[in-house]
Design brief:
428 residues, Rossmann fold, D-amino Acid Aminotransferase, Chain A, domain 1, 4 domains, five-stranded antiparallel sheet, 30% helix
């Protein structure tokens, strides 16, 4: 089988790692890939956003299945282009992907169909937005409506902070076109949960519940990032809660998208807040999450390839549910100096010898053409994923290896999974 993976980050490395194990004889291509993916696949120097060239590549290579990692190719209509050429692909159409690429559209859809979420208003004028703040109490959430690489969310602790956030997005355009329109949203109290479902547009098969850590610093402090680590499974995601999420959120969302003429086929990621009133949607994503994917893939005991093939064909009805290893995993992200504002690049990376319980997923890495050395080339550089019989063991293993990776300005959190570990310690 010939598989094309679109993207070149840690999520795509984890997908390549899993697909290689699912089908050791597969011919896997990655566009553009990265040095870690290059050990598993043939990397092709085509940008993930270059939809026409990717379609031509898939045709020339006679690719059997394309798997899209990032959100931007989906926003650019890669699935529509591939489908027009009868090229099999896993992912939603451009219109269905707007569940992520337009937070306003997603909010309007949820409100119209009674899907539980935070109250919000949307604005494109800074003065009007500031006037609307009076309807919200602090803390309040200010969100860029478009794609901002996971960073377009500011939790303002006061009206003054909220006004600064509004100016930064609408006037200063700190998030570019992603911030041309913003949402002002009520702050929700509760515990966060990430739930991925593979769907053929009608049926949905959930993966293990996971949790990520968006803040840069230990204790969930510091600026928002694309994600500094994740763990799975999250004990919060009990069978009863997952059934409730399916009934109140996943099924109505898929039904609403079908009724709108944009059925969603691919990976739907629900970012949730589990409040005292039940689960509510923080946001939807239209693709595998990063870094949750790096935590989930080493736990998946059955075939990811079979699952996404069934979804891409629209036939999940006959696909068996996934099997999971009875283990826990922790993915610790190593970020470049200066991340998330101005990440450094070009710093030499020194890696420890491989260890049996560790998978190292490359994200922002490159090979220096002058020296042949592995160097930093992005904000989030590597994800160190460890598995263990308990979450505490997985955290200890991940952190021990992460501490031994060396590059100038390295940043990491040393507390991935801390809330769950604290709660389990209190319960015992």
């Amino acid at each position: 089988m010939k598989i094309l993976i679109v993207g070149g980050g840690g999520r795509e490395h984890a997908l390549a790692w899993k697909l290689r194990r699912d089908d050791p004889g597969a011919d896997i291509l990655a566009a553009p890939g990265n040095p870690g993916i290059a050990a598993l696949a043939r990397c092709v120097a085509v940008s993930a956003d270059d939809v026409k060239t990717l379609a031509a590549l898939a045709e020339e290579e006679r690719v059997d299945l394309t798997v899209v990692g990032p959100e931007r190719p989906l926003e650019a209509g890669i699935v529509d282009t591939f489908q027009a050429r009868a090229l099999p692909i896993f992912g939603p159409t451009r219109e269905a992907a707007r569940i992520e690429t337009s937070k306003r559209l997603a909010k309007d859809l949820m409100v119209e169909h009674g899907i539980p979420t935070a109250h919000a208003s949307h604005h494109s004028d800074a003065r009007e937005a500031k006037l609307a703040l009076s309807a919200f109490s602090a803390p309040v959430v200010i969100k860029a409506s478009g794609l901002a690489s996971g960073k377009g969310v500011i939790v303002a602790q006061s009206a003054t902070e909220a006004e600064r956030a509004i100016d930064a997005m609408l006037s200063d355009r700190v998030f570019g076109n992603a911030g041309r329109e913003i949402l002002i949203e009520e702050f929700m109290e509760g515990e966060e949960l990430s739930l991925f479902v593979v769907t053929d547009g009608e049926r949905a098969i959930p993966l293990l519940p996971a949790r990520d850590h968006k803040r840069l610093l230990d204790g969930d402090l510091g600026p928002n990032t694309g994600g500094m680590g994740a763990f799975a499974p999250a004990a919060l995601g009990t069978p009863g809660l997952l059934a409730d999420i399916s009934t109140r959120i996943i099924e109505p969302t898929l039904r609403a998208l079908r009724e709108s003429g944009s059925p969603f086929r691919g990976l739907l990621y629900a970012g949730l807040m589990i409040t005292s009133a039940g689960p509510k949607v923080v946001e939807f994503n239209c693709r595998f999450g990063d870094p949750e994917t790096q935590a989930l893939m080493p736990l998946l005991d059955s075939s990811l390839l079979e699952l996404i093939e069934c979804a891409a064909r629209g036939s999940l009805r006959d696909c068996p549910p996934p099997r999971w290893k009875p283990l826990a995993s922790v993915a610790t992200v190593l970020a470049a100096g200066g991340y998330p504002d101005k990440p450094r690049a070009g710093d030499a990376i020194r890696l420890p010898a491989p260890e049996g319980h560790i998978e190292l997923f490359h994200a922002g890495t490159a090979i220096d053409p002058a020296t042949g050395a592995l160097v930093t080339a992005g904000g989030r550089v590597l994800a160190v994923t460890a598995v263990g019989t308990t979450l505490a063991e997985a955290q200890e293993r991940s952190l021990a290896y992460a501490e031994r990776v060396s590059f100038e300005g390295k940043q990491l959190r040393r507390d991935i999974g801390w809330r769950e570990l604290t709660q389990s310690a209190g319960a015992s």
